[in-house]
Design brief:
Blueprint (H helix, E strand, L loop, with lengths): L13 H14 L5 H14 L11 E11 L4 E7 L4 E3 L1 E3 L8 H13 L5 E2 L10 E7 L8 E11 L15 E5 H7 L3 H17 L1
Parallel strand pairs: 1-7
Antiparallel strand pairs: 1-2, 1-4, 2-3, 2-8, 5-7, 6-7
Helix pairs in contact: 1-2
């Protein structure tokens, strides 16, 4: 699992936010040669002028696997563009630079869950995975890449989950059920890492 610099979740801006992003990536360590290669590219992007700018060929995104620890279930969302079940998350809005804050905002918007917190330790940030994923072209934008910074967020109220629209179905699933639905290897790896966190928390 990737570990990032430990820090309390606070709102940051400007140089502090840039420092927080680079510190997070600098402290992370991949578990494979591929992940290490991705991290090297992401560190370079983070030190550039606009790491979250959607117009750049490789830009950052933030996402999370939402979990309900007591039942060891994970929440997946149907992504219409990718035609796949995935974790929640997305792009930073203009002016946003903190990956955790972006991830939390996106997760609340996409699930309706307002009690989301970092897990397994709500007081510490921890990247569970960092991966570069290709995004195919569509009628609005050319093919590009997302440098996705991934966290684990927990809720105590899984029954409150609501999709943000009728095409973004949400499903609570066991780890095994989720793995049966996943075609993308890096998402399957994310779920396996969370499964290990469930085991450690028992």
């Amino acid at each position: 699992m990737l570990r990032c610099a430990l820090r309390t979740v606070v709102a940051v801006s400007g140089d502090d936010a840039d420092a927080a992003l680079t510190a997070t990536l600098d402290a992370a360590a991949g578990v494979s040669d591929v992940e290490e290669a991705h991290l090297r590219r992401l560190r370079s992007v983070a030190r550039g002028p606009s790491p979250w700018d959607r117009a750049t060929p490789l830009h950052l995104t933030g996402s999370a696997l939402v979990v309900h620890p007591p039942t060891e279930r994970v929440l997946l969302r149907w992504h219409e563009r990718q035609e796949a079940w995935m974790q929640v998350g997305g792009h930073g809005d203009p002016g946003e630079v903190d990956p955790l804050a972006i991830t939390l905002r996106e997760a609340v918007e996409e699930t309706g869950l307002e009690d989301l917190r970092l897990w397994p330790d709500a007081d510490r940030t921890e990247l569970v995975q960092a991966v570069i994923v290709p995004v195919p072209a569509n009628d609005k934008e050319p093919a590009h890449e997302h440098g996705d910074l991934r966290y684990v967020l927990a809720t105590d109220r899984p029954e409150k989950a609501r999709p943000e629209n009728e095409r973004a179905t949400l499903r609570w699933l066991s780890v095994d059920e989720a793995l049966e639905l996943i075609d993308e290897p890096n998402v399957a790896e994310l779920i396996r890492r969370v499964a290990r966190l469930f085991e450690a928390a028992r």
